[in-house]
Structures are given as structure tokens and as C-alpha cells.
Design a protein that fits this description.
5-stranded antiparallel β-sheet; 2 domains; Alpha-D-Glucose-1,6-Bisphosphate, Chain A, domain 4; alpha+beta
Length: 189
Amino acid sequence: MTNFRNLSTQLFLGISLIFLLSCQGMPGGDARKNPPDPKERVKKNLEEGRGFRVDNVLKGNKGKGGDFMFASSNELWRASLDTIDFMPLSSVNYSGGIIITDWYSDGSNIDESVKISIRFLSNEVRADALNIKIFYKECNQNNNCKVSQKTGTLIAELKKSILSKAAVYKKQNKDKNFKPYVMSTPGDG
């Protein structure tokens, strides 16, 4: 009987520990970025366009199918495509989070070309959200080609350009969605 009691106690403690540890990765708000007062949080969310408003449903979407979030709403995605828009694209997969260009040569040296791979690690506009790789291909007269991955300033410049465009897009989107919140009182009808 004692072994059964010890086993059940250990099992209970083990399950409790699993539940406690599983809460660690739960998404939640950052208390430093959100006001502690619930009314202020509601106001902030609605002003930033993240809330649900009945007046938008009643007046706004007549004849429309609704508002949908597409790849064009992701600031990093748009900024990346805008930055490399001069290059032909080989593979673009929004759900997989990757953009791969085709080999590109500016025409000055036809024996050299470049290929860029951009992998999205997060949708947030921050420096560690992008993994950029640049490949160079050099060919000789016999069409023997050597491909090598390059590191250096070009990756940093490309990342800087993408992040600065994404920050502008994010601000424009935030400004577009901003609507001042006016708290109504009962009887305002």
C-alpha cells in the first residue's frame, strides 16, 4: 500500500510539473508594453486596429467579403520583395517563409552571377527575424562554374534596407488603423 501511495504521489507531482512547465511558452502580453488597467488595454487595442468593433460590422462591409490578411499585410515580406524587386524570383513561399531569387547578373560580367535566399524566422520587424544568404557563381570559358556562399557587408546592407522599409510599412499600417477610442455610456444610443 505504501508503494502505491508513493507512486501516486510521484505521478501527481510529475503531472503537475508538466503542466507548470508547459505554461512557460504560452503567448501573452508583455506587461511593460501594455497598460495594467483593462479599460486602457481595450482602448489601446481598438486604436491600433486589433479589436472588434460592432460599428464597423454594421456600416462598413456592405458588398465586401470581409477583411483578409494576405502576405501583403506582412511588413517584412513586402519590404523584402520591394528590396530585391530587380531580381528574377525562383521560388517564393509565404507559408514556408522563404524567398529565393534566380541567378542574377547585372550584365557587366556575364561570367559572374548572384543568388539571394531570404528565410523569415519571425513576423516581427527585428534584426533576428531574417536569415539572408548570398551565393556567387563564377564560370570560366568552358562553362565550369564554381558556386560559393558569401558573407560580409552586402548581407548587412540588405538586412538594413529590408528592416528600414518594414519599419516604415509597419508605422504606415499602424497609422492607417488608428482610430481614437471613445467610450460610450449607456443611453448614448
